[in-house]
Amino acid sequence: MTAKITLVRAGALTTIQDAGRTGHAHLGVPRSGALDAPAMRLANRLLGNAGDAAVLETTLTGCALRPDRPVTVVVGGAPCAVTLDARPVAWGAPVRVPAGAVLDAGPAVHGVRSYVAVAGGIAVETVLGSRSTDLLSGLGPAPLRDGEVLPVGEAAPCPPMPPAAPWPAPPRELTLPVRLGPRADWFTPAALHTFTTATYRVSAHSNRIGLRTEGPCLARELSGELPSEGMVLGAVQVPPDGRPVVFLHDHPTTGGYPVIAVVAETSLAGAAQAAPGTPVRFTLQQGLSCGPDRARNHNRPV
Length: 302
Prior knowledge:
By secondary structure, the protein is mainly beta. The chain is 9% helix and 28% strand.
């Protein structure tokens, strides 16, 4: 019989996440999945799990769990104090948790999201091929509450990684490489210059849907409205207040505000760990722009 874990303390926002739901955007279903995918994969591999096994993603305040059978756990992602029955244990390395003991992943010291992986993975039912919680559509398990009981899967037969592993530090300053488009020509040349040279800051209103920014407004050259069009992970949308929003994993699949640029998916893990107030810079990648001239004829409002 496999183990079950009880959430003794669910924290401010703890969700179940894996690699997410791919291939359903045409149905209006976001990808969801772990915002810091490299941290999820590393935590899993330290346990011998598949890299995309379901884990707990915490937000700022961590969580605490108690298994009914012995389990092995790794807490990674945002650094935090980890205790076992109030005694300090290792962060970022496997910890054996006896039956009935409480493992507590404390508040993030730096960064935003910690990942609590259990050998065997969190084995809740899948929805459209994923166990991920989707805060926008409501698919998958609801955000976890105190006292919730979760099943654990069978531990994988493959050997774990060596216990010492390099964990990237959460960013003190977030640099996001972008390519312009597809609606860059909706903005003035001065706005495009500001976008790629100014320093913004992460807003406290950021969430799993998008990283919101505070800073200079981007003025439009065109004042019309767009019909809703497809949105991709990493799209930088500019709402009427003129401040860029970077779409993260629970983003809507369509939207009507112009997208000034797109951030490469490989650069979004840092956005998952950028705490409110973190400086943000958007840097233009040479040769990756789909520039205004290419799209100007069909980007104007009708």
